């Protein structure tokens, strides 16, 4: 069965950096696009970034463009999110989510990892 | 940017029908997807492409989409259906923008 396990969250000061990882199993990772979606405490869902199955194209929400970088290592079945210049408003649970083939929704989600930006 | 509006809350008695709306400009021209999120858990896809159900999702969950409103309907509501529900579309007018609705808390009385 599909499993997505995020890691790397924690407490970081404003202006700092953090790298999240998402380990995938139960499907052919190299064949599917992948997303990061976040949820601030008590708030709704916000899409963050998408990367195509082969890493050839990457897309970002305006709120993180220029600060966050999505990447993947298909040999390790792992998705990454490098977060730089972190702000208090980046505090959220970050989920990785799988894209089903060519369709524009999220069919499987990880359990999430909490990032807290605070001094 | 494209905006999806949901009612903040819906209350329903067990065994009755809950209807959750998702409003957006000409949303009927887009594919709408719905997610269920229970407290402390990750979202789960319950309806995709307006009205299709992933395997393992009960037939009690159904969807429709027309005009400016999409609707998720939960029939014969059970206590275990109490959760937050989010609609979602892909806004093709901007560069790869995935839009979520504001979310609806369903309370089973």
Tell me about this structure.
The complex is a heterodimer of chains A (119) and B (109). With 119 residues, chain A is mainly beta. In chain A, a hairpin with a 5-residue loop joins strand 4 and strand 5. Chain A is globular, with a radius of gyration of 13 Å. The model of chain A has no long low-confidence stretch (mean pLDDT 96). In chain B, strands 1, 3, 4, 7, 8 and 9 form a 6-stranded mixed sheet that branches. In chain B, strands 2-6-5 form a 3-stranded antiparallel sheet, with no helix packed on it. Chain B is mostly beta strands. Chain B contains no helices and 9 strands. The N and C termini of chain B lie far apart (36 Å). Classes of the chains: A mainly beta (119), B mainly beta (109). The interface between A and B is medium-sized, with 21 and 24 residues.
Helical coverage of chain A, percent range: under 10%
Please estimate the helix content of chain B. under 10%
Structural class of chain A: mainly beta
Main beta sheet of chain A: 7 strands, mixed
Task: Write down the overall geometry of chain A.
Answer: globular
Roughly how many Å apart are the termini of chain B? 36 Å
Structural class determined from secondary elements of chain B:
mainly beta
The gyration radius over C-alpha positions of chain A equals 13 Å
pLDDT below 50 for ≥5 consecutive residues: which ranges of chain B?
none
Q: Which strand-content bin applies to the residues of chain A?
A: over 45%
- What is the number of helical segments of chain B per DSSP (H or I, 4+ residues)? 0
């Amino acid at each position: 069965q599909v499993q997505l396990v995020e890691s790397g969250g924690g407490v970081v000061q404003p202006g700092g950096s953090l790298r999240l990882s998402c380990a995938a199993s139960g499907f052919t990772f190299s064949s599917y696009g992948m997303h990061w979606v976040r949820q601030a405490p008590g708030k709704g869902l916000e899409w963050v970034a998408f990367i195509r199955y082969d890493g050839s194209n990457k897309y970002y929400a305006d709120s993180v463009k220029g600060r966050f970088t999505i990447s993947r290592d298909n040999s390790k079945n792992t998705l990454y999110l490098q977060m730089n210049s972190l702000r208090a408003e980046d505090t959220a649970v970050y989920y990785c989510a799988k894209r089903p083939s060519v369709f524009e929704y999220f069919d499987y989600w990880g359990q999430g990892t909490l990032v807290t930006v605070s001094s | 940017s494209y905006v999806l509006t949901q009612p903040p809350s819906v209350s329903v008695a067990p065994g009755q029908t809950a209807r959750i709306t998702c409003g957006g400009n000409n949303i009927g021209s887009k594919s709408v997807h719905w997610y269920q999120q229970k407290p402390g858990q990750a979202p789960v896809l319950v309806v995709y492409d307006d009205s299709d159900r992933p395997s393992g999702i009960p037939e009690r969950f159904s969807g429709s989409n027309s005009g400016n409103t999409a609707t998720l309907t939960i029939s014969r509501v059970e206590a275990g259906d109490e959760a937050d529900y989010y609609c979602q579309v892909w806004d093709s007018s901007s560069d790869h923008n995935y839009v979520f609705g504001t979310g609806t808390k369903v309370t089973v009385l």
